[in-house]
Amino acid sequence: MNWLLLSELVRNVGLVVAAFAGIYLAWQRVTAATIQADASLKQADLARRDHVAELFNRAVGQLTHEKLEVRLGAIYTLRQIARDFPGLSGPTFELLSAYLRESAATYGDSDPPVDVREIIDTLKDRLVKP
C-alpha cells in the first residue's frame, strides 16, 4: 500500500511539473508572437508612411502640370491626404496656399479656373472646420 501511494505521489508531481513546463513554453510562444506582431505593425506603418509620402510628392509635382485633369487629381489627392492624416494637414494646406500665391493671376470679371476654385474651396473648408 505504501508503494502505491508513493507511485501516485510521484505521478502527480510529474504531472504538475509537466503542466508548469507547458505553461512556460506557452508563455514563451505568446511572447514571441507578440514581438512578431509588433514588428509587423511597425513594418506596415512604415510602408503606409512611404506610400503617403510617395502620393504627396507625386501630387506636388502634378500641381504645375499643363493638363487641368492632372492638376485636379493632384488637388483631390492632397485634400484626401490632409483629411486622412491630420499630421500632414498643415503642410498640405501651406503648400496649396503657396501654390495659389505663386500662381496668382488677374481673372477680371471671369471666374478663376476650376483647379484654383477647388483649392480655394479646400482652404475655405479648413478655415470653417479648424
How would you describe the overall organization of this protein?
The protein has 130 residues and is mainly alpha-helical. The mean pLDDT is 90. The protein has helices at 2-62, 68-84, 86-102, 114-128. The chain contains four helices and no strands. 85% of the residues lie in helices and 0% in strands. Helix 2 packs antiparallel against helix 3 (86-102) and helix 2 (68-84) runs parallel beside helix 4.
In what range is the share of β-strand residues?
under 5%
Tell me the overall shape: rod-shaped
Query: Structural class of the helices, strands and pairings?
Result: mainly alpha
* Residues in helix, %: over 70%
Q: What is the ordering of alpha helices and beta strands?
A: HHHH
How many separate domains make up the residues?
1
Number of strands: 0
* Measured distance between first and last alpha carbons: 84 Å
Radius of gyration: 31 Å
Largest sheet: none
Overall pLDDT score: 90
Contiguous low-pLDDT stretches (5 residues minimum) are none
Count of discrete alpha- or pi-helical segments spanning 4 or more residues: 4
